[in-house]
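Quick question about two entries, pasted in order.
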Amino acid sequence: MAPQYEFIDPFDSFWDGSPYKPEKNDKADFIQYANQLKTTEGFHVDVIPKKLWSGIVPESVDSEDTIEAANLAVEEFNRLKGADLKLSKVLNTNCLFVTRTLFFLTLQCLDGCFYEAKIYFGYGIHTSELVMFRPAKYYPRPRKDEETNEGGGEA
């Protein structure tokens, strides 16, 4: 059970859990991708459309930027909320590359609990900003078939 902190979890109507409303020319793989993102608030994506010009994509949990963003998210949460969490490991990472990279992180801390964080990670003159830090809603990952782990991301 997660400690009783005041978590950072602002409401965003885009991530309301409703299915993606396809547009006329949307391909099946994009519709599946969009629905998976909407139902997991961007924290999980297994299907990347063949022609995706911009969007949320998986990133290595071991990359230097991922580790730095995860540590920064935990440190900033601790600073803002007077918590004393320590990062154990990054379990999953998705990114949206814009001026700053928006990381969607699934983390485990040394308290044994799982957390989700969204953090804009700044490069150069751009600053970083923690926008969400909460107990994980989507870990373990939602799976269609829990026996085989096939069909990830669909309820």
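Here is the second entry:
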Amino acid sequence: MGTLGYIAPELVQTGKATPSSDVFSFGVLLLEVACGRKPVDIFKDAEQTILVEWAWELYMEGSLLEAADPKLGKGGYEVGEMEKVLKLGLLCSHPEPASRPGMRHVCQILEGQVPLPEICKSSLNVSIMSGYPRRNRTSDKSVEATSTRSLSSEGRFSSASHISVSC
């Protein structure tokens, strides 16, 4: 079916590949290159095991550039370009398939023909995509887990687990 870490959550659930699931995989590839990391690294701390999830958490905290490959060093890249690649990787790996851009749009963004759309933080909780392996996380924060099921515009059900973190 595919390589863990590149597989879109809905593909794990349905077994059906779509253009949107391909975009998800491309987003993971963008993050992998920009971060200098594998998509799944079991030797990382629990909160960093899954690259996409870790990058989303950094984005939600306002510290996405911390995900940039440390081997590049400070000044080893153009900050604006790194931010664009990281944000585009997140947009492509959005937990909701309908929120992912098409590949034509992705190419236009990369070529500088169109601006990168903003990712609305208010519509996202730190979303943990069902179908991915989970580890228990412990921190100083209160964590509440919920599971939801929703009907998409195509008439398919999708499930997602969400974690709400309160400080």
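Reply: The CA atoms of residues 77 and 123 lie 30 Å apart. Residues 126-167 have pLDDT under 50 and may be disordered. Hope that helps.
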